[in-house]
Amino acid sequence: TDLKLPDGSGLDVLGAARERDPDAQVVVITAFGTAESAVEAMKRGAYDYLTKPFKADEIRLTVAKALERTALARENRELRRRLEAVEAGGEILGRSPRMQEVFRLLERVAPTGVTVLIHGESGTGKELVARRLHALSGRAGPFVAVNCAAIPEGLIESELFGHVKGSFTGAVADKPGLFEEAAGGTLFLDEVGELPLHLQPKLLRALQEGRIKRVGGNREIPVDVRIVSATNRDLAEAVREGRFREDLYYRLNVVALEIPPLRERRDDIPLLALHFLQKYARAFGRPLKGFTREALARLEAYPFPGNVRELENLVERAAALETGEYVGVESLPPALGAPRTGDAEGLPPLPADGFDLEGFLADVERRYLEEALR
Question: Are residues 14 and 106 in the same domain?
Fold first, then answer.
């Protein structure tokens, strides 16, 4: 729009256009440019401000970039819509086919009360899966989590089963353990493969009989607890090597859930990245709306050896560094590098697991036109 119009001001057109469509990118042009009018136009949401006379190439490039910004805004809005649909069902985990298989199995076993063993690499979100399982179970009691690898061997028995006063030095009062704390709910044993061998029979007995004894006590205490455990190790191999009891392994592994690493479910990366971006945008008070296409391409191309945990840390860093509305590659760690390109220079990367041909050709055409405009 021109700044000066026969029947009004271009700033009024700018305001009306932005009110009607928040994604509209308005370019203000004028032969009477001043710093004040430029500042006012940008404050009201103008995409750019051009002073006459200008070259045709200049306006073509500006329009092309404005259209790109509109497309980016709409893509990120659609991503947010999909994210809201996922989050409405509980914790954010993913919508890839592999994770949908996990969800379907969760829904079937959640109401049954059977023990579940979750296997996956470190950082894949095993505790989130356990929490979703508890939420779907309908159990009224709490969800209690413990990392078996983080508690010293001499303290883990007391932590799980509690102790009575005087049972050991420092036991100045009776103390209930996590089994009692999780009464009516779910006890999540993370890294269960690290449980000391001498303590495994006591856990097996609690599972089989639904009763425990506190350390130093004689009274049997009934407990109504569902056990969900997780490991990043091969427990079957640990059984063969004599490091884990076979009977306990089968008791824990009534239903097995395998959480795929993030590199095997790249479809989930955009949703997870936006979920974490919204989380940290709120925490940092930043007006972040999404990611640029190049930034998202780099995220999708990265193998994420640390899985979802690494992705969250990376997005937290980007949210802290980014000063614009969309996270660009400048806010990502240099280690991510540029995404792999095809044989021809400038072609978008080809995913290893197939791609949408029409979308790929449209992307190639868009890049060609942008390059021609430059």
Answer: no
